[in-house]
Amino acid sequence: MAYPRQNAFVRSIARVERAAWRGVFSPRLGLVLLIALLLLCVLGGLLPQLDMGSQSGSPQRDALRARLRSRWGPAAAYLETLGLLGVFRSRLFYVFLALLGAVAVLRLAQVASPSWVPAPPRRANSRVFVWSCEPLEAWQRVRRALSATGQRVVRHTVVADMDLGAVRGTGLERWAPGLVYAGIVVLLTASVVEWGLGWVGPQVELVLGETRPLGSGTSLSARLEQVDLVPLADGTPGRFDSHISLLRGSALVRRVILGRERSATLGGLSLYQLGFGPAVRVSAQTGKGTSLRLQQMVGDRSPQRVLRLRFSGLQQEQLLAIPDADLVARVVYYGALPNLGFRGRVLHVQLIQGSTGQSLAERFIDHNDRVTAADVGVDLAFEYAVSLRAEREPGLPVAAAGAVLVLAGIVSSLTWPPREAWIAVRQDGSRCVCQLSVREADRQARWALALAASLAEAADG
After folding, report:
1. I need a labelling partner for 62 at 20 to 30 A (CA). Which of 168, 285, 288, 329 fits?
2. pTM higher than 0.70, yes or no?
3. What is the pLDDT of residues 270-296, one digit of tens each?
4. Domain limits of the chain?
């Protein structure tokens, strides 16, 4: 009784194996993987990514995480737990990439090897032809019919009492799917090249006249020379262009203009403008016109004659010390205060005596103005700060080549659709039974109808 069980088990394994190979070579599997990757890429593009241009524990990453939590509340923690704030570094993204790469390599091997044809699908459309001839003559008729329709037998095998043959087209349609999967392999190779040789610099914030290095991956520094702000009809910022000088040491290398959809390249380095935000230029003078030194109370505390303050969604308040006048300036930025009649950006400025803590002056200003206290005038002027990032992207040309291959493969597949069929010939007494099987989706295709007509005509040959 053990033998029948063993045979049933072996047959079950064989069925699972055939089903697995059908699934691997099914176009639906590649389509599902591509759609899944596309959805992940869309999510990665719509949601802010904590791993783009910042390392774990960096101030930029912590600031972005805090902004997301203040804006979205508990949802930000759930999104981060699910990995949606780091899509392109998640295990799920890598798993889909690996699966798509494996399927693409197998499909390329199938295209390159004429005899590597999957088994007929379970839901195949079959036509049966009965001829009064020997199997050898039956295969001669089959080959003549295939030759007349531009096809050939690429694999011939014998199973039990049947001769089986796998059929493929001989024209350009044979290579069209290969272009698609070759393009996918090239695209995945581009991601490997980018991962190994690419570089993403830190986010660099600049105000007018400020110079900062672009990161350890390059010797270049950037200085913000000018900003062009084109408002929309409602007064909100529309197009924002920044004029940047790229420096190597003190030598000017190149001047570029960056915008929302405008980047610049230099020697394999790409420079992007990530965004812009409010900034305020602050200076102080005595009544006699003597310039006073200013000093930030948090961060860089080096004394300067002119300070430029940046404001973000988190840090709306800045404190400045004017040591020579025993003053502390408290500056709070608001995007708008409609309750007080300010529909645009506005500053709440307070001058406090450092030794006593007494408030000496307090004003709201929505344009460039001066606040005076104790014979000291503090000038405030509205400006903008821009955030930049430099990247080295050696995988972009490789990715472009892969995209061209995928597009060419899709166009070729639509123009010359692939043709696959399966033919079985079996001796039945003095007759031969020939069975033609094609995919259900191809039953009304011209090539399938032409092949069936040629096999039907072969009965009289």
Report:
1. 329
2. no
3. 999 988 888 999 999 998 889 999 998
4. 120-171+416-461, 204-391
**How far is it, in rounded angstroms, from Cα 309 to Cα 302?**
14
Strands annotated E in 193-248: 199-200, 204-206, 211-213, 220-231, 237-248
Write the single-letter amino acid at 431. Answer: R
- Identify the DSSP state of 336: -
- Reference 218, options 193, 240, 198; nearest CA is 198
* Collapsed DSSP state (helix, strand, coil) of residue 318: strand
Confidence of residue 194 (pLDDT cuts 50, 70, 90): confident
Please name which of 72, 92, 70 lies closest in space to residue 83, comparing C-alpha atoms: 92
Q: Give dist(CA 149, CA 455) in Å, integer.
A: 10
Largest separation between any pair of C-alpha atoms in the chain: 122
Which region, left, alpha or beta, applies to residue 215 given φ > 0 means left and ψ of -120 to 50 means alpha?
left
Q: Which amino acid is at 8?
A: A
Q: Which CATH number is associated with domain 120-171+416-461? A: 3.30.310.80
Angle at 316 between CA 315 and CA 320, to 5 degrees: 90
Place of tokens 């929505």: 366
Question: Tell me: the pLDDT tens digits for 406-452?
Answer: 899 888 878 877 788 999 999 888 889 999 999 888 888 888 899 99
Q: Say whether pLDDT at 305 is over 80.
A: yes
| Helix, strand, or coil (residue 308) | strand
- Which residues does residue 165 pair with via DSSP β-bridges, in sequence order? 156, 423
